[in-house]
Amino acid sequence: MWSNPVGRVRLVGMIEGVSFLILLFIAMPLKYLADHPEAVLYVGWMHGVLFISYAAVTFRARAQGHLTWKLVGFAALASVLPFGPFVLDKKLKAVENAQLDADAAVQSTVTDSTQ
């Protein structure tokens, strides 16, 4: 999954999505219902780093021509919605598979022409 830009977006998106759910459904209730504000401090900090990482890998994939602006917009929207990255992952997986198939076809053509 780390081998291509769209795979990196998918992986970081999954991790960021899990951190958001932990923040919303574990850390926030601990803060407000159990009087443990440090839960939000640490989980929130971790989620913030992952959120920035998600944005960085998404924009890098766009800069390299692997994502459209429409998909970047969907990724931005998905990053602020609970379960959003998991919904977007299906579309990103299709894009990743199409790119891998195209790369394999090009590699096959190059291999055939050199023989």
How would you characterize the overall build of this protein?
The chain is mainly α and 115 residues long. The chain has one domain. It is built from 4 helices and no strands. It has helices at residues 5-33, 38-63, 69-78, 84-114. Helix 1 (5-33) packs antiparallel against helix 2 (38-63) and helix 3 packs antiparallel against helix 4 (84-114). It is elongated. The two termini are 31 Å apart. The mean pLDDT is 92.
Q: Specify the biggest β-sheet.
A: none
Q: What sort of overall outline do the alpha carbons produce when their principal axes are compared?
A: elongated
How many domain regions?
1
Q: Pairing-aware structural class of the strands and helices? A: mainly alpha
Instruction: Note the gap between the termini.
Output: 31 Å
What's the total number of strands?
0
Q: In which range does the helix fraction lie?
A: over 70%
Rg result: 18 Å
* Unreliable spans: none
Mean pLDDT: 92
Number of helices: 4
Q: Hey, roughly how much beta strand do the residues contain?
A: under 5%
User: How would you spell out the order of helices and strands?
Assistant: HHHH
Concise summary:
The protein is mostly helical and 115 residues long.
